[in-house]
Amino acid sequence: MTSRQLEDGYWRAYRDFYRWSNIWRGAAAQPGTHERLRHLAYAGGWKKFEPAWDALIRSRNVVRAMPMLERTLAAFGGGRAHG
To answer: Cβ neighbours of residue 67 under 8 Å, at least 6 residues apart?
Structure first.
């Protein structure tokens, strides 16, 4: 297997794993509504918008987004909000 084949296989598996149908299936497996919403917010928000996050990080503007990110995580029990 060439390095190109390996990388192509990685990205194919990544796309398949993070399809919306799989994200929804993962959320449905959570024990309660709160946990399902948290799964959707995290997996969907991070993995489906990864190019946007990458651009935000590379532009060094992620610091401006921190308060919003912290509030979002706190709403789902995954962090603390500054207030």
So the answer is: 82
Model pLDDT, residue 2: 96
**The tokens of 72 are what?**
């979002």
Q: Which long-range contacts (CB under 8 A, 24 or more apart) does 40-43 make?
A: 41/72, 41/76, 42/76, 42/78, 43/18
CB atoms within 10 A of CB 27: 19
User: Is residue 72 pLDDT above 80, yes or no?
Assistant: no
Q: Is the per-residue pLDDT at 4 higher than 90?
A: yes
Contact 38, 78 (CB under 8 A): yes
Residues 6+ positions from 38 with CB-CB distance below 8 Å = 30, 76, 77, 78
Q: Which residues contact 82 (CB under 8 A, 6 or more apart)?
A: 67, 70
Rounded to two decimals, the pTM is 0.60
CA torsion, ordered 72, 74, 79, 83, to nearest 10 deg: 100
